[in-house]
Design a protein that fits this description.
- The chain is of the alpha+beta class.
- It has 3 domains: about 140 residues, Methyltransferase, Cobalt-precorrin-4 Transmethylase, Domain 2 (2-Layer Sandwich), CATH 3.30.950; about 55 residues, no CATH class; about 90 residues, no CATH class.
- It has 11 helices and 15 strands.
- A 4-stranded mixed β-sheet has the order 1-2-6-5, sandwiched between helices. Strands 13-15-14 form a 3-stranded antiparallel β-sheet. A two-stranded antiparallel ribbon has the order 3-4.
- Helix 2 links the parallel strand 1 and strand 2.
Length: about 350
């Protein structure tokens, strides 16, 4: 069973209130669309890139947009088109348009005698995913643009999110180098060799010792001397000398020593700062933007102040915030709310 796309998950996302409207609103991880057709593929792939550059997410087809979100289901032709999607063709299209691959899955579902189609887009391991060419009606996709999922909408990435992605990518690269250097140091430079997987060779001046991670040792197919056969077709590696496994080096997480330096504003202070810039923005609208954009769960703008480690651990395990836990905000949250309000006024 697919852990991201199954009847239980989709039924929850399509849960309906007594008035016929959906419980769940569009968010950082959820997008609804009324119908599906290949003509809108560029628009769907824009959402793909946005979800991949953030936390991943769902796109569900068969939900009306206005005046309220209501279940309509897909018509037979649209449902058939969705069901017969060729993953190889779509993935090839993605590789042609974007800087790296986007991993996704799709399936069809029936609920309340209505038919629905759903995509799940996985969070990208290497970000950002960048558009390489203009594509789609009215250039829906544009060369050089990076798309990101904000609240219930897809748009071009903003400074704070792009800076965070770049910083994380640099840190990942640095961690990889630190991991490699730690392993070499543990074995000793004189005992370490380099396995070049492209050349298929081991490079070392005189040493015959290859340092291999213990997890990799489990996956290597070893051959006994005299039992080598080219005709079997298996790729093999013959090592002369001693193979020395080492333990994996743990990566130390960066700990924020003083959270209040990074998140200096309380919710009240945030609202006051916004109103000081524009008196026409009411507090109720500020709270609505925070909720619609899911700012409280976005550490680029906000973080929770837990009373103890137990509360924090429970939140990390189940994603549920205990009642009465306050949020604190970065100054970047002010600019975010102001930008949303300006866009609404245009």
């Amino acid at each position: 069973m697919n852990t991201k796309l199954n009847e239980e998950i989709i039924s929850e996302l399509l849960k309906v209130k007594e008035d016929g409207n959906l419980y769940h609103r569009e968010s950082q991880t959820l997008e609804f669309k009324e119908s599906f057709n290949f003509a809108g593929l560029a628009e769907y792939l824009k959402d793909f890139a946005a979800f991949a550059n953030n936390k991943g997410g769902y796109i569900i087809f068969g939900v009306k947009d206005r005046p309220n979100r209501e279940l309509s289901g897909l018509r037979d032709r649209a449902f058939e088109q969705f069901d017969k999607l060729d993953p190889e063709r779509i993935s090839g299209y993605i590789l042609d348009i974007f800087s790296s691959n986007i991993f996704w899955t799709h399936d069809v579902f029936t609920s309340r005698n209505l038919k629905f189609g759903a995509f799940y887009v996985y969070e990208a391991k290497t970000k950002p995913i960048i558009c390489k060419k203009d594509e789609g009606k009215d250039q829906t996709l544009k060369n050089g643009e990076i798309y990101y999922r904000y609240g219930g909408r897809t748009q071009k990435i903003q400074f704070a999110e792009l800076e965070d992605i770049i910083t994380k990518r640099i840190n990942q690269n640095n961690s990889s180098w630190m991991d490699l250097m730690s392993k070499i140091a543990k074995a000793g430079p004189s005992n370490a060799a380099i396995l070049d997987t492209e050349k298929g060779s081991i490079e070392k001046e005189e040493s015959q010792i290859l340092v291999v991670d213990e997890e990799l040792v489990k996956d290597i197919q070893w051959i006994k001397e005299g039992d080598f056969s080219e005709k079997k077709g298996e790729r093999t590696l013959k090592l002369v000398g001693e193979v020395q496994p080492i333990n994996r080096v743990e990566v130390v997480k960066k700990v924020i020593e003083n959270k209040y330096k990074e998140y200096p504003l309380s919710a009240t202070e945030l609202a006051e700062e916004v109103k000081s810039r524009d008196q026409n923005i009411g507090k109720s609208r500020i709270w609505a933007i925070i909720k619609e954009s899911d700012l409280k769960n976005n550490k680029l703008y906000s973080d929770y102040v837990f009373r103890n480690k137990k509360q924090e651990s429970e939140y990390e395990n189940n994603g549920i915030v205990p009642k009465g836990i306050p949020s604190i905000y970065k100054t970047a949250a002010i600019d975010f709310i102001m930008k949303v309000c300006r866009n609404e006024q245009q």
